[in-house]
Amino acid sequence: MSGIDKPAFLQAASLSEALPSLWEALQEKVDRMIGQLKGKSPHVAKEDGKYDDMRLDWWTSGFWPGILWIMHDMTGKEHYQSAAWDWDERFERRSIEPDSNFHHDVGFQYLPTAVIKHKLTGDPDGLRRGLQAANFLAGRFNLNGRFIRAWNQDKIGWAIIDSAMNLSLLFWASASSGDPRFEQIARAHADTVVSRFIREDGSVCHILSFDPATGEWIEALGGQGAGPNSSWSRGQAWALHGMANAYRYTGEVKYLRASQRVAHYFLACLPDDAVAHWDFRASESLEGEPRDTSAASCAASGLLELADALPALEGSLYRRAAERILLSLTQRYGTWDRPEHEAILTQGTGHKPAGQNVNVSLIYGDYFYVEALAKLRGWQRRIF
Ligand code: GLY
User: Fold this and answer.
1) 136, 282, 326, 327 — which has fewest CB within 10 A?
2) Given the CA of residue 162, which atom of ligand 1 is nearest to it?
3) Where residue 273 sits, what CATH number does that domain have?
4) Is 40 a domain residue?
5) Strand pairing of 348-351 and 217-221?
6) How would residue 1 be classed by pLDDT, with cut points 50, 70 and 90?
């Protein structure tokens, strides 16, 4: 694109200046994606700009329908709702197949589908499926260790920071069913996040291993981060956003402070263009390390949650930081000049230690970018 052809939002000096034309461009982009993705369950898009089609029980399957529901809520346009409508039904069918592998990430899957569908339309099947998913998540709670078990197979004693985002399903389930047990479990796990996952300096580890019988802590594991003592940036974002959500649902100040602690560490580690590297402790200078735009967009949305939770003066630090991140994502990491590209953002990192999905587009990066921009456009409802 030459300077003359460049849309206003790519040349704007601030996000507030960019936002009106950016929001228009985003709607056009999502409309185009509906035609491109059809029924696909997108996860990763590489160089060719084509999203893959992952199995429906993969943890990322809720994000594309989540984008559609946000767009529907923001615009009232029916075509977003029609494209989003049947995802929770598809999950339900998948969940009774013999090789189904749903786990703690049902929050990432059912909140942006069944639950938001029920919130927006009153659909009774959405409510039923959301509550079933909450029951499934609650059933993964380890009473002695006070954590929600993450994955299946032999990882019975493993808890991961990503679950901080899935707690919203439990908070919602208590509010909509009147049964406090879901919230009791969510609070217990959130307390473990505060006491065990978030370090004193505000950095966060990815995986903790506990003895599943006694609940005793065994060790931290590097997981998708560079090592057990490192600071995987998407894990930081899950903790930051997840604890801000837990504060919104409970009013417990310890969750708000935990989110702030993580936010301060996250912001202190950002490079000049405000888009996080994949792990803040991957190397000493981080020179040449890949970025993770999904960590950036999820953190930006969490920072906006923090800003809303605090008095205006105290919250402005977080709002300004979120706007700086979102402007940089928009102007440096977008696919605006490639209409055939099926994703919104580039340069996400999925699992660097495994050599998987480095420097790619990730549907959850796209989702949290849309979620954050919708918040800045006045979106009141929440998915997480
Ligand atoms: N929840 C897995 C990830 O963040 O990659």
Assistant:
1) 136
2) 1
3) 1.50.10.10
4) yes
5) unpaired
6) low
